[in-house]
Amino acid sequence: MKDAGSRAKSKRDEVDWDAIKARFLPMDTLPNDLIASRTEGERALAAFNRALEQSKTGNSDVAMIVLGKLTSRWPTFLAASTLYGVLLAEARRYAEAEQRFEQVLLQAPDSEDARTIEYCRMAVREERIREEARDRSRKIKEQKLMPVRARMARSGILQKAADDTGAGRTQMASRREQENVLKMGDDDAKMTAHERRPFTRAIRVLAISVIVVAILFLVFYFAIRPSILAGEQRRQRLEWLEHQLTSEELEESTAREILEQYRRAFSLDDALQPLTKK
Question: What fold is seen in the domain 1-173?
């Protein structure tokens, strides 16, 4: 393979893969590091030359099949791997071509064709980056337009129509079709509102019931419940006082008099009433 030179390629340049393929020449002998029997070597050499000829005569698909088998059987067949990478790049399969060139450079970084292979690798890398950028930009635009198209399709502004090939395509609806769609939408809205009236009435009744129950609960919790709790606390204090006075041995007559007054003042019926002054 002839040397392609070390000219730097800008991002705006287009790679002429046909010119790069023209630098490949038919081979008379296989490389010395290619391990194969005599028969296998002759077949591999014939297959490579046939693939090279087919790639230059417009049969790149057939050539890629042959080169794929050759590189799978003999990964160290650098000329076949390099030509295979060029054909992959020509078919716009830039990621696969870049991987192929990188493998060749790893196997023979100091070969006489290393500069040409590096040139091809950088070229397909730039093409791959541009291709990925275009795909991302297209996807972003599609995502931005998708909600708009969906709304227009639902409103009838967009409609499906058959093109020349019979496939469906999207086009703008006519003014009359748009007016009919809007009129149908108004009628549907009126019918929907009429059908929802019983349901709305039931919702209102349920909401009023919930509000009434909530008000009753608040009245009980903040007005009635505190009075009940206060009475219960007074009863507990009186029981505690009675227990203390009856359980301890009091020697002084004053304590006995207090107990007698307490028993006369309180009974089982009025245990929750306030103490009377004596």
Answer: 1.25.40
